[in-house]
Specification:
single chain; 293 residues; alpha+beta; 5-stranded antiparallel beta sheet
């Protein structure tokens, strides 16, 4: 077992783990650490904890020291320099007529590198731009092309729900989202309704997907036969969110009727080729617990 602390360098950014190196560190304080980009300032968001050696990605870098008030002032000065660097880079981009959109600028804590984030439709030849920027800032220059989801995370904004973007508020990493999720959640497949401001499928499609997958395993298939409190019926629709089934049944006078039942109130008839009474009881019990959560 080894003791580690989790450090985040940006709000809602990815958490990286470091060796505290016997320094007394608490959650919420600043720390100076060594990264692949150089010396960086970050906030400890996961306090000291023990983890198994096999769960650690080696080599595990060490925390250099706690951050001081002067370090905080250095971060503020870097932000001021980033604003000036943004203007300078924009002027150079316009001068060279490059087909790229500058999104953000970031100084490393020790000032050893300036990173310019941009988007573009394809490859951009920015060699001359890098030379000019290096001559102006007299430090290492990196131009990094990012995707539209990363652009939204850097720029911020409001989602269709009216709240601040999830990727800006709390999502540390982007998870894969597919159109299959929208289909399984019975959502409109209109791109305008299921896409975020980045133009990609909304990240929130992932939030309830586990629930839908678990409940749908126990949902009867469309056109299958089930036993309802009012007799046998044919399933015409299933709502995984509410746990309700709509079935077509035949009344005692021979007239058809469409009735809605709760999933835990029906019994399966031909849902599977061979399903035992014990399996039915197990399914009903798990569905009931899922819907009660």
């Amino acid at each position: 077992m080894q003791e580690v602390v989790g450090v985040r360098f940006k709000k809602a950014g990815k958490i990286y783990y470091f060796d505290p190196d016997n320094i007394e560190l608490d959650k919420g304080i600043g720390a100076i650490v060594e990264t692949s980009r150089g010396i960086e300032y970050g906030e400890i968001v996961v306090g000291p904890k023990k983890v198994a050696n096999e769960d650690i990605i080696s080599p595990l870098k060490k925390v250099i020291r706690k951050a001081t008030q002067e370090d905080g002032r250095t971060v503020d000065r870097n932000k001021e320099k980033e604003a000036e660097a943004f203007k300078t880079c924009m002027q150079r981009i316009e001068k060279h007529g490059l087909p790229m959109k500058l999104v953000d600028v970031e100084y490393t804590f020790d000032g050893s590198k300036v990173i310019f984030y941009f988007t573009a439709d394809g490859r951009v030849d920015f060699r001359e731009l890098v030379k000019e920027l290096a001559a102006v800032f007299r430090t290492r220059i990196e131009l990094r092309q990012i995707g539209v989801r990363d652009e939204a995370k850097l720029m911020g904004g409001l989602g269709p729900c009216g709240r601040a973007l999830c990727c800006v508020s709390f999502l540390g990493e982007f998870e894969p989202v597919s159109i299959k999720m929208a289909k399984e959640q019975n959502l409109s497949l209109n791109p305008a309704k299921i896409s975020g401001i980045c133009g990609r499928l909304m990240c929130c499609l992932k939030y309830e997907q586990d629930y839908y997958e678990r409940v749908r395993k126990f949902m009867p298939r469309i056109n299958s036969e089930v036993v309802t409190p009012e007799g046998k019926g044919e399933v015409i629709s299933c709502n995984a969110l509410t746990g309700k089934i709509r079935a077509k049944i035949t009344n005692s006078d021979g007239t058809p009727d469409i009735v809605e039942f709760h999933l835990k109130d029906i019994k399966y008839s031909k849902y599977q080729d061979a399903i035992s009474e014990d399996e039915i009881e197990e399914i009903d019990g798990e569905v009931a617990s899922l819907l009660d959560d």
